[in-house]
Amino acid sequence: MKKRTFAAVAAGLFLFAACGSPTAKGNNSASNNDKDSKTVKLGVNMELSGAAAAYGGAEKEGIDLAVDQINQDGGVLGKKIQVVSKDNKSDNNEAASVAANLTTKDQVAAIVGPATSGATKAVLPNITKAQVPTVTPSGTDDAITKQKGKVQPYIFRSCFQDSFQGVVLAKYAEDNMKASKAVILGDNSSDYAIGLAKAFKKTYKGEVVDEENFTAGDKDFQATLTKIKNKDFDVLFIPGYYTEAGLIIKQAREMGIDKPIIGADGFGDEKLVDTAGASNVSNVFYTGHFSTKAPATDKVEPFIKAFKEKYNQEPSSFNALGYDAVYMIKQAIEDQKSASPAAITKGLANLKGFVGVTGEMTMDKNHNPEKSAVVLGLTDGKESSAETVKP
After folding, report:
1. Which residues on adjacent β-strands are paired with residue 81?
2. Where are the beta strands (DSSP E) in the chain?
3. Residue 143 has what DSSP assignment?
């Protein structure tokens, strides 16, 4: 997911040179990857402070739980995982610097993070130069793994990408809601929202009767909603983030617009309900990566139990995505029988039938996991339904 406040500044890649000139051979022979080493170094490049700390902190909890479990069970290939964690402070330049330090100074075998799409794009030059595989738990921008027609060789993700969400929402509107007419009210200042709207329109077989736009930071949607209210439609699609979506939902409901409202994972923050008011957040649905109400695999219940024991709370999608990212790397190591960066890269690229808590996944040729999605329903601001959708 790309949150507006921390991703808008990262429209392009940062051509940030790593300190030193590591090679694949040099890193692969680093001490932490030697056969006689007792540990596998796992870097964590995460937003632990700043605007995106809610996401990064949650993913770090999932990462820590996974590492604890793996080490308690004897590690991977008989080696314990040693976490080297650094805070990128929700800053894209800092994320690039952290990637350089993890790959050159700390010589990690693989990295989990960053959480956000902008920060993940920023680390690409450095992880590519060092040839160290990286898994982002929640960087959903399509352009992360494939740019200008070329697959980025060292980046992978445990989440699905933005265009996938647009497809899921179009299918859900058609098949589950029986909605034949849709209105789109999207953020035209966000690549995230633009990509969602594009994928939705390409997939949706019904009629888009109107498409309106807003800009991140807008607060008054009365005029646009008045125009929409007079339209004949079955569902309102809001591709955007909770900041504006919460206000739109509040104002729409107060104006008497009671049609179902759908959105993507940008809705997935409690501040959406805080902004809209719980009484207004009914008949609202959005795509999620995980739900305790819709177990994707048999691993979900043990994960929920272990997470509650460690943190005394229910796990979120971000907890689950961070957890799966670690186990994906573990699976890659076991499949290749090696913890070198080159072996892990190959293992991730060829991952098939991996069973995680967010679903069973197989890595496609563009380094995106093929997996199902969950559409979460809200009633009075609380999760009231969860349906698994396989496009």
Report:
1. 40
2. 39-46, 80-87, 110-112, 134-136, 146-147, 150-151, 155-157, 181-187, 207-214, 235-237, 261-263, 284-288, 354-356, 359-363, 369-370, 373-379, 382-389
3. G
- Residue 123 forms beta bridges with which residues? none
Q: What single letter denotes the amino acid at residue 80?
A: K
**Interatomic CA distance for residues 318 and 339, integer angstroms:** 26
Query: Exposed, middle or buried, 78 (CB in 10 Å: 0-12/13-18/19+)?
Result: exposed
Interval 18-77: pLDDT, tens: 333 333 344 443 444 555 578 999 999 999 999 889 889 999 999 999 999 999 999 999
Tokens of 125: 């030059």
What residue type is assigned to position 36 of the chain? D
How far, in Å, CA of 209 to CA of 349, rounded? Answer: 41
Amino acid identity of residue 161, one-letter, is Q
User: pLDDT by residue (tens digit) across 105-159?
Assistant: 999 999 999 999 999 999 999 999 999 999 999 998 999 999 999 999 999 999 9
Confidence (pTM)? 0.82
Distance CA 242, CA 290 (A): 18
